[in-house]
Hints:
Elements: E1 2-10, E2 13-22, E3 25-35, E4 40-51, E5 54-58, E6 64-69, E7 72-82, E8 85-94, E9 100-112, H1 113-119, E10 126-138, E11 143-156, E12 159-171, E13 174-184, E14 187-196
Antiparallel strand pairs: 1-2, 2-3, 3-4, 4-5, 4-6, 5-7, 6-7, 7-8, 8-9, 9-10, 10-11, 11-12, 12-13, 13-14
Amino acid sequence: NSVTATTVYDQSRIDFTTHVKEKTRELDATGQLVLHPDHQEVHLPELAVRTQGVEWRTAPGSDATVKYGAARLQLEGVRLVSGDQSLDLAGGIAIGKEPSAEAIEVHARNVDLQQLETLMLLDRGLSGRLTADARISGSTASPTIDGTVSVDNGGFQTYHYESLKVKVSYAGTRIGLDAALQQSPAETITAKGSVTTALFEA
């Protein structure tokens, strides 16, 4: 593992170029940190993550911006792409316990799950193409999440299915699910209900 960085400080702005290597994964980032009296901003016109022939990077012409401070996190223009795959994040959320009326919108399109596993240095046997939309509101200490997820031509190790569609909600200590798994044209499995997050605690 290694980290190299070049920085230039000019009054309230720090320009940086960074290269991070972890095992077979590499990250390159070029941007600016702008220090304001009431908040900080990170601008990332160039960001790329790659491993084993898989690469995600900021979309051409985009200028990903993260603003934080004054009990608020704001994302603007965060768009990552890899071929015909894309991930977009935009909006704001309160930092801490006090909720706000803002929300962060997340949109994923045509994401190759096998490539995503490779990028995350995992090997759980997932496959398929994922499309997802989510809205994250409330606060970082107590978020509320509502979203939909669909996977086409998916699989887990040796098990394969045509499609999976899930509506997900999360608030407090409960997760709600409304799922339909299309295993074949003649076979569908559905499940609907909620579970407590205590089930996932060690």
